[in-house]
Structures are given as C-alpha cells and as structure tokens.
Design a protein that fits this description.
It contains 5 helices and 6 strands. With 144 residues, the protein is α/β, with parallel strands linked by helices. Helix 1 crosses helix 4 (97-106) and helix 3 crosses helix 4.
Length: 144
C-alpha cells in the first residue's frame, strides 16, 4: 500500500463559525489550532496546510480560570537596551481582545512559514458581527 500524499487538488477547505462567549481561552485556542492545521481530517499531512478557515466572534467575552487576568503577562522587546515591555492579560483583553486569542492560537501552531499561513485563515472579531456571511460558515461548538 502506498502512502497517501495530499496535493493542493485534494484540499477541501471549509468555513466554520465559533462563538467564543463564555469559552475558556486555552481550551478554545487548542481546538481552533487543531482545525487550522487540519488534524481533524483523514488526509492530514504535517507538511501541507490543509486546514479550514475559522471565524471567531464575541472574543471579548472569553473567560480564563484562576488569577490569570492579573498574573498572566505578555512580553515584547524592542531589541534596544531597556526595551522590555509587558502588559497584563486584563489590560490586553480590554484594549485588543482579538490579540489575546490570536497569541494563544499562534503559540500552538508550527513556528515556520506553514504556521504563519495557517494563522492567516483565522478571522477574529470582538463583537457578534463578521463580514464573512458570503462564505456561509457552519457553526462549530466545543464543549466547555
């Protein structure tokens, strides 16, 4: 039996709509990353981007457990002396709720060109409206 090697013609991309209201950040991010990679498909191959598009709405209403709102920090450095900046999860969630979920999913994808291409298929919106109605995304629910 020959090993199946998927090509671009074999890829069937679907659009899914996820409501992030009252979902836990890490669990939701891991399930979204699973869909973006295409690991739920029988024709999965680690070297091919055969994942689906995921549209996330209501990400401003996402939940975290414990004291992560005050304790979890996101760091960035400007590569200059003294250029370390940090922001708490609570502040980032108030200012840019889309970035919180995007950073969580990004950490669960491959750290190469393929991972960056997969992340482009993730569309995140803070409110309930999204401009992807023409793609007719199927609702996707995850257990809490």
């Amino acid at each position: 039996m020959k090993t199946f090697n998927p090509t671009l013609a074999d890829i069937d991309r679907q659009w899914y709509l996820v409501d992030a209201e009252d979902q836990i950040l890490g669990r939701l991010a891991s399930q979204i990353a699973h869909r973006l990679r295409g690991k739920h498909k029988p024709e999965f191959a680690p070297h091919v981007d055969n994942g689906d598009f995921v549209v996330v709405i209501n990400c401003e209403k996402i939940r975290v457990t414990g004291t992560k709102l005050q304790d979890k920090r996101y760091y960035s450095h400007s590569d200059w002396v003294g250029g370390l900046k940090s922001v708490t999860l609570e502040k980032l969630l108030a200012e840019k709720p889309e970035e919180v979920l995007r950073k969580a999913v990004r950490g669960m994808l491959p750290k190469n060109r393929l991972g960056r291409a997969m992340l482009k298929k993730l569309k995140i919106y803070a409110g309930a409206e999204h401009p992807h109605a023409a793609q007719a995304p199927k609702p996707l629910t995850f257990e809490k």
